[in-house]
């Protein structure tokens, strides 16, 4: 494969119509363009895989709406708590047994992320939360997204335990 292009858009529709079509206000456009071009204008010498830094799978999760507010905030909060370059721990004042259990679980997850070669980011954009992730293998990505959704618990609470069967 020499090129892969993906585009996701989230629009807020309005009751107004223009020639029978609903008008919508674009809230978010997420594009991914993977190209085998090597930066020198030469196509085909290297495949897309050679440009992916070991990532065999990538994905985008876009969350919007009141049903997903807590889940979106969970991703934002967990991303903020990831270790940063420099390693200073500024939140060392947090104490308590419940926090300790949560922190142990978080560290186990982060260790698994490192083993799976998983990288991710989360950002709030115009009322949406966009989570982008990549991993060396599909299994690592499946394990991570399933673990995050189970840990936060709202998907299972709202849609039932069967909603997460595909992530086991």
TrEMBL record:
Key words of the record: Chaperone
Pfam families named among the record's database cross-references: UreD
Taxonomy, superkingdom: Eukaryota
Biased composition (Polar residues): 8-17
UniProt xrefs under InterPro entries: UreD
Region (Disordered), start-end ranges: 1-22
PANTHER family: UREASE ACCESSORY PROTEIN D
Protein name according to UniProt: Uncharacterized protein
